[in-house]
Amino acid sequence: MNIRRQITVLKNLPSAARQTQIRERFAERPGVSVSGLALEFDVSAMTIRRDLAVLEDQAHIQRTHGGAVLTQRMMLEFDYRGRRENNGAAKKAIAREARKLVQSGQRLILDTGTTTLELAVLLKDALNITVITPSLAVASELQHAPGVEVILLGGVIRRGSPDLTGPATEHCLELFAADLAFQGADGIGLDGAIYNSDLRLARVDKIMRRVATQSCVLADHSKIGQTALARNGTLADVDFFITNTAAPAAILKRFARLGPKIITVKP
Amino acid sequence: MNIRRQITVLKNLPSAARQTQIRERFAERPGVSVSGLALEFDVSAMTIRRDLAVLEDQAHIQRTHGGAVLTQRMMLEFDYRGRRENNGAAKKAIAREARKLVQSGQRLILDTGTTTLELAVLLKDALNITVITPSLAVASELQHAPGVEVILLGGVIRRGSPDLTGPATEHCLELFAADLAFQGADGIGLDGAIYNSDLRLARVDKIMRRVATQSCVLADHSKIGQTALARNGTLADVDFFITNTAAPAAILKRFARLGPKIITVKP
DNA sequence: AGCTAAACGAACATATTATAACATTTACAC
DNA sequence: GTGTAAATGTTATAATATGTTCGTTTAGCT
C-alpha cells in the first residue's frame, strides 16, 4: 500500500514535472531507456520520446536508440529565472518581422529580453553579421552560429538575471558603432514613452540608441499602456516599432505621428 | 476521526491558506497537478489555476500544462572543451596558496585558465570582494557567491572557448583598477618570460598587470621551461609567483632574483 | 551482406488542460 | 438587510498533450 502510494507520486504528473524527473535519473545512472521510463511513469513510449526530444533541446542530453545519455560537452550554468512566456506566439511573430530588417554584413545590437532572444534564434543562419549584446542568453544562443560574431558587453552580473548592466556596460557600449539596435520594453506609455523595469537597463538602452544608426523597439500589445519604473526615451527616438495587430489602431496611429515606422504582425 | 479532521482542514480554506498548502506540496512531490489539487481542496480547477498564477508571481513555482513545478534554473550553455586536467592536485594546492593572498574588501582580477578557475572555487566564501574576469567559467562559478560581485569583461566570444578576448576586452579592462591580479600561464621560460598560447590573451594579460596594483602568476612545475606563441612579459613584472615544489630549486632561485616573491606548495 | 526485432518518427484521433468571458457565490462593511 | 468587492464557479473555445497506427530506420546478429 505504501509502495503503491510512493509510485503514485510519479504518475499523473504534468509533463514538465516528468521531464524534470527524467533529468534527475541521470544523477544516478549514466543513461536512461525509453521503455523503462514509459513503464515507470505509466505513459506511452511515444510520450517519453517527446520528453527526451524536449530535453535534448533544453537540458543537455543526447538521444540514443532506446534512450538517452548525458551530453559530452561541459556546460557553464548561469542563472535564468525561467519566466512564463506571456505572448509567446506574438513575440515569435514580432521577432520574425524584425529579422527581415537585418541584412548581411550589418553590426547589430541586441538588448536583453525574451523578444530579442527570439530574434537571436532567428539570426542563427545569418551571414557575416556582428551581434553586440549585454545578454548572456543571446550570447549563448548565437555562440555556435558560423555567420555571427558575438561581442558580449562587459558589466556586473545581476544575480538571477542572465544579463550585464552597470557603468562598465555603458562604457563598453560606447566603444562600438552599430547599424541597427533591437530593444525590448517593459512598457510603452500611451504618449509613446518607453519604460524599463530596471533603471540600469534604461540607461543602457538609451546609449544603445545613440551608438546605433537606427533603432527598433519590439513590444507585444500587452505592453502598450503599461508603465514601469524607468523611462528611457520615447518612440520619437526610434526608427521602427514592431508590435502585433492586437494593439489598438488608434494608438498606433498616434505613435506613427511621433516618427517611427510602425510594423504590425498578425497573431 | 483524526483523518476526517485532517481532510476537513483542507476544505473551505481562505485562498491564502490554500495557496500556502499548495506550496508545501512541492516538498513532497516534484510537481503538482491542477486536477489533483482541485480534488484535494474540493474547489474547481479554475480556482487552482488562479492560485498557481498567484504563486507564480511570487517567483517560487512555474506553471505548466496540467499543474506546476518548482522554478528551474534554465541553463545557458557555453561550450567548454573540457581539457584534461594535467596536474589537478598541484593546481588545487597552488590555488589554495593564492587564496591566502586575498583579503576582504579587495578588488581582484582573475584571468582565464584552469588554475585560476580553481581559485575562483575557493573564493566563493570570500567577504565583500569584487572579481573582474574575462572568463565565463569564473563568472559562472562565482555568480551565486553572496560576498562576491562579479564583473565580466566584454569582448568577443571565442568559439569553443569560455572566455572573452579582443580589443573590447582590453578597452573594458582599462576602465578598472584592482588590488591584485591572478594570472595563469601556458609557459614560463627559463629566463622568466611568461608565455600565452594565444596572442590576444597575452595582450589582455599585459593590461591586467598594469591596472592592478599587484599581480600574481600561478603555474605548476610542468609549465616551467615551456614556451608558447606569445610572450606577455617576464616574472620581473609580477609580485608573486606560486608553483609547486616539483619545480627545480635552482631555477626558482634564479626567478627570485628577478623580483617576485616565490611561493611553493607541496604536491 | 542480409535478416530480424526493436525502436523511431510522422500523422492522425482523442483526451486533457488553458483561457477568457460571464455568472454566481461569499464576505464584510454600513 | 443591502451594496459592494473579492473570490469562486461555469461555459465555450482554443491550445496542448497523449495515445495509436503504420511505414521507415536502426542495432545487433548470423
List keywords for this structure.
10 helices; globular; DNA-binding; 24% strand; 3-stranded antiparallel β-sheet; Arc Repressor Mutant, subunit A; Rossmann fold; homodimer; 267 residues; disordered N terminus; alpha/beta
Overview of the molecule:
Two copies of one chain form a homodimer. Chain A has 267 residues and is an alpha/beta fold. Chain A has two domains: 2-70, Winged helix-like DNA-binding domain superfamily/Winged helix DNA-binding domain (Arc Repressor Mutant, subunit A), CATH 1.10.10; 88-265, Rossmann fold, CATH 3.40.50. Helices cover 38% and strands 24% of the residues of chain A. Chain A has helices at 2-9, 15-28, 34-41, 45-58, 88-99, 114-122, 136-142, 167-174, 199-211, 249-257; strands at residues 31-33, 61-64, 67-70, 107-110, 129-133, 148-152, 155-157, 164-165, 178-183, 187-188, 193-196, 212-218, 230-234, 240-244, 261-265. In chain A, the strands form four sheets. In chain A, strands 6-5-4-9-12-14-15 form a seven-stranded parallel β-sheet, with helices on both faces. The radius of gyration of chain A is 22 Å and the shape is globular. At the A-B interface, helix 2, helix 7, strand 6, strand 7 and helix 8 of A face strand 1, helix 3, strand 2, strand 3 and helix 7 of B. Strand 6 of chain A pairs antiparallel with strand 7 of chain B, so a sheet runs across the interface. Chain B binds a DNA duplex (30 and 30 nucleotides) through residues 14-15, 34-35, 43-47, 49-50, 65-67.
